[in-house]
Every structure is written in structure tokens, then in C-alpha cells.
Design goal:
Layout lengths: L1 H29 L1 H26 L5 H21 L1 H14 L2 H21 L5 H4 L9 H34 L1 H12 L5 H39 L5 H11 L5 H17 L5 H36 L3 H15 L1 H21 L4 H6 L4
Helix pairs in contact: 2-3, 2-7, 3-7, 9-10, 9-12, 9-14, 10-11, 11-12, 12-13, 13-14
């Protein structure tokens, strides 16, 4: 009987533990935005630490003022970045205000009918085109709904910016305090030296990674900007900048950037003939973006990332792909820094392991 009671108690404890873990995971998922803010704050801390240290040690700023000044530098760059959106938004609003929606919708429907007739001649059934559902997408009501959605997104974005800057302030100001507390209370003494050594190596590699990422984004921005200029797209510099920032998100970001560039090209020429001017230019820009993104994804990005974090390009590709399948877009963004950190820690603790030696031989 006692044995049965022990087994029953063990099962109950296991179920209770699983329940607690499940609730904890659900809660973490519900506040996942906080982890995004924390991640961005950690990146800003990594980038801003040299500025803060320079102001503190060379110019004699107090710790609070050196951190505040660093955040003001970030804030100025952020305001400049936001200010660049104003011409883009005003240009597209002007394009929309001058557009004849009925004329554009008629053009789309005519194009659908042309494609439908061609497919029928080739023996392909395409009744869905004949229904004109695609032509009905471009309506003033749906543009109004899109604007409302963008306003809602802007509200969430503002909250995220404020939270990120708040977290970054304390991470920059109290970085040494946090490291001391972690070292003292959370790291066993026998592993303290290895873990602190890992932190140093990880910080150096991640600094190289973000520097390499900046170079990759700069090249991508310049190529997109020149491409959009050649096609005469309005607000080309802003569209190219947004495209470069979206490119940070592997695979998904480039698709959104391509759609954005194509739509903005369509709106640039929307007051001209739809079938002979607006649509062909949008398709050309779409094709140009596909070529640019193909070259970036297969040559530039793997080379820069592999050299910055000391990993093989195929290794980087598999890590990003696996992270995306498991955790979605956020996982794809943090995959390379997280994988690099894990590799450094494994090398410090298991330097004799043959498998780990293979994957960390360049670190």
C-alpha cells in the first residue's frame, strides 16, 4: 500500500510540475513582446557601450549623463530615420489622392480578362480570374482599413520604442552591476572562469556579427536605391532603406520588401496608363528585387555572416531555417547570435569533444 501511495504521489507531483511548466510557458508566450524589447535593448547596449565608456572615461561625464547622452545619440538617429518616412508617406498619399480608382480597377479587370483568354487558349481552366475578384481588391474602403491598421501598429510601435529605451538605459548604466550579480549569485564558483571567458568571446563575436550585418545592409541599400532610381520611383531612398531593414528578417523580410517596392512603384505611376506603364514598371522592379535578393541571400549574406561569426555558410543557412520552422520570425532573427553563443559555451566546457571541435575549430 505504501509503495502504491508513493507511486501515486510521484505521478501527482509530475503532473503538477508539468502543469506549472505549461502555465509558465503560456505566460512567457503571452509576454513575448517583452523578450523582443529586451533583445533589442541588449543589441543597443552592445553598440552603445563603447560610446558610453568613451564619454565616461575620456570626457569625464558622470555615469548617468554618459548613458543619457548615448541614448540621445540613438534618439537622434531614430528621429532622422522616422523623418525619412514623411516624404514616402506624403508622396503615396498624393499619388492616391490623384488616382482614379475606377479607372485603375477597370485596367486590372481588363488585364485579368486578357490573361484568362490566353490561358483558355492554352487549355488551362482559370475561372477564378473571370470573377474579377482581384480587380475588386483595389477599393477606397480597403485602403481606409489599411490606414487604420497602420495607425494601430504605430501605437504598438511607440510603446515598444519607449520600453526598449527604458531597458537600454539601465543595461548601459548598471552593466557591471548586473554582471557582478550574475557572477556572484548565479554562476557556480568552479565554472565562473569559463563562463566569464565565454562572455568575453561572445561579446567580441557578436560585435563582429553586427558590424558585418551593417556592411551587408549598406550594400543592399545602395543596390536597391540605384535600382529604384533607374525606374524613376518616388521616395526611392526611403523605400530602399526600409527594404534593407526588412532584409534583417531572413526569407520573410525580403518578400515584404519586394511587395513594398512593387506597390510603391505601382503608386508612382498610378496616374498613367495602368496596363502599359504602371503594371510593367511594378513587375520590372519586382523582378529586379528578386535578382538582388537572390545574390544577397546566396553570396553576400552567407560570406559576411560566416566570416563574422566563424561558421560555415551552410551551417548558418541550416540554423536560420531550423529556427524559423521551430519559433517563427523572431527565431530567424536571433538564430545566428544565439547559435554563436551556444558554440562558444560548448567549446569552453567541452573542449575535448570531437563533434564540438569540428563545429568550433575556427572560434
Amino acid at each position: 500500500m505504501n509503495r502504491s501511495a508513493e507511486i501515486a504521489n510521484g505521478i501527482l507531483k509530475a503532473v503538477a510540475a508539468l502543469l506549472v511548466i505549461g502555465i509558465f510557458v503560456v505566460l512567457l508566450y503571452q509576454i513575448k513582446a517583452v523578450f523582443v524589447y529586451l533583445l533589442i535593448a541588449l543589441i543597443l547596449t552592445l553598440v552603445g557601450a563603447p560610446i558610453k565608456d568613451f564619454l565616461y572615461s575620456r570626457w569625464g561625464f558622470s555615469k548617468n549623463w554618459s548613458v543619457t547622452t548615448t541614448l540621445l545619440v540613438f534618439g537622434v538617429f531614430f528621429l532622422i530615420f522616422i523623418g525619412m518616412f514623411i516624404p514616402l508617406i506624403s508622396t503615396q498619399i498624393e499619388n492616391l489622392s490623384n488616382a482614379d480608382f475606377e479607372k485603375v480597377q477597370t485596367g486590372i479587370q481588363q488585364y485579368q480578362l486578357t490573361v484568362y483568354e490566353a490561358l483558355i487558349k492554352w487549355g488551362v481552366h482559370a475561372d477564378f480570374l473571370k470573377s474579377n475578384q482581384i480587380g475588386n481588391i483595389l477599393t477606397e474602403e480597403r485602403f481606409a482599413a489599411l490606414i487604420n491598421g497602420l495607425l494601430s501598429l504605430l501605437g504598438h510601435f511607440s510603446i515598444g520604442i519607449a520600453a526598449t529605451f527604458f531597458i537600454t538605459f539601465f543595461l548601459l548604466r548598471d552593466k557591471e552591476v548586473f554582471l557582478y550579480q550574475i557572477k556572484k549569485y548565479f554562476i557556480p564558483e568552479e565554472h565562473r572562469e569559463k563562463i566569464m571567458s565565454s562572455f568575453t568571446i561572445i561579446e567580441a563575436l557578436l560585435s563582429r556579427y553586427f558590424f558585418g550585418l551593417s556592411i551587408q545592409l549598406l550594400i543592399f541599400f545602395v543596390v536597391c536605391y540605384v535600382t529604384l532610381l533607374l525606374f524613376g520611383v518616388k521616395a526611392a531612398i526611403v523605400i530602399a532603406l526600409i527594404s534593407a531593414l526588412l532584409n534583417i528578417v531572413p526569407y520573410i523580410g525580403p518578400l515584404i520588401a519586394n511587395l513594398l517596392a512593387s506597390v510603391c512603384t505601382l503608386l508612382t505611376f498610378i496616374d498613367q496608363d495602368f496596363l502599359s506603364v504602371a503594371l510593367p514598371n511594378a513587375l520590372y522592379v519586382c523582378l529586379a528585387y528578386i535578382i538582388i535578393q537572390f545574390l544577397d541571400n546566396n553570396f553576400l549574406q552567407p560570406y559576411i555572416f560566416a566570416n563574422s561569426v566563424k561558421s560555415h555558410p551552410l551551417e548558418i543557412f541550416l540554423v536560420i531555417l531550423s529556427s524559423g520552422l521551430l519559433t517563427g520570425i523572431l527565431g530567424m532573427v536571433v538564430a545566428v547570435p544565439l547559435y554563436t553563443s551556444v558554440k562558444v559555451i560548448l567549446k569552453e566546457f567541452f573542449p575535448e569533444n570531437k563533434i564540438i571541435q569540428v563545429f568550433t575549430k575556427n572560434i
